[in-house]
Prior knowledge:
The chain is an alpha/beta fold. The protein is built from 16 helices and 13 strands. The protein starts with a helix and ends with a strand.
Amino acid sequence: MNFQDIIRKKRDGRSLSEDEIKYLVKGISDGSLPDYQVSAWAMAVYFQGMDDRETRDLAMAMAYSGDVVDLSFIPGVKVDKHSTGGVGDKTTLVVIPLVAAAGIPVVKMSGRGLGHTGGTVDKYASIPGFQVERGFAEFIRQVQQVGAAVISQSGNLVPADKKLYAIRDVTATVESIPLIASSIMSKKIASGADSILLDVKVGSGAFMKEQQEAEKLARAMVEIGKRAGRQAIAVLSAMEQPLGRMVGNSLEVKEAVETLQGRGPDDLLELSMVLASYMLILGRKYSSLDEARCCIRNILDSGQGLAKFQELIEAQGGRLNYNQKSYGLAEASIKREVITQEGGYISGLNAYMIGHTAMMLGAGRERLEDRIDYSVGIEILKKCGDFVCPGDVLAVLHLNCENKIEAACRQIALAYEINPEQSEKKPLILEVIS
Length: 434
Ligand code: URA
């Protein structure tokens, strides 16, 4: 087989055979294909797309390009959750303990954040002492004892995706539905869960800006799961404005804890409740969404969710001190208010710009090897639908570097749209695909 012919075939809009896809994935994993040819192929896919069968073949070939975890000896239906990435999205921190407290084992392999979106592993890693790099045996023991465990995607898990994602990241080929669907689902299949809850974000802060595109991505992922013998449900949720009020790792952990204490923002609480309820359905504890929601509500109200969160944190070496205002999480040295000059209703708050500003402050990384500062971020005081007067505080920057203040304040102010008329409230949950 000749790789040049495979690139040409895709460039000309023809479907690749299963064997051609396996050949390609093997070449990416063992390094026999040079990056420039992989890049050319990825760009051909970006423009020509892949049909459903090709996308499935790519996902399966990538899933089996390295180790595949076998969790079959842990009793029960093991459930995983994945978000396609957003700004202020700390739902995993809230949802995992709620679902685990309901008796459904949760296995969570998470990635690090890249670009304007935050990564769950970074949020957990901001908790003093918390270990995200753990051996597989320890991970399994913890799922058995605590009912949930979180580790970073490491070792020899889906090496083909690791290389392909790094190439896509620097060749402007990330935003391709077949490539995103196969990248996400290959990791979910390899990490061994029986069922997968997918939170597909739609809006300015997401990869998918339009609902129609997000639907296509969701259907492709659910279909890949089905073909691999895994049940998957996709919830499409709005990512026009950041979720909750905190953006930045330590700040988001604090907000997740407050949500588990019943003091969280409405949108974060609602999305967490919906996702956790679907996870109970995937875990076959309930068949009705109302019953599942009622169970999650009880777990939250009784404090069992917070207790499970604490158990999970301690099992992974983490320490939080609830007697301190910041719970012992890292705090930034400078706090700066962003003030509005205009008055009116907030009609838009661009999640991408907020996420990008947080990254600029050091909360995220432009390259995977960048170090991040857990303490920095943005506290959002005003969101869509709120009324503001000139001089009101829109947001508070938490940062450690004086010379970033001006640019960050400017970007945050630009992220807000203010209008004299109140606009219609947009739904948070857009659609569910199963
Ligand atoms: N997340 C992934 O894991 N892969 C993608 O391609 C995009 C988002």
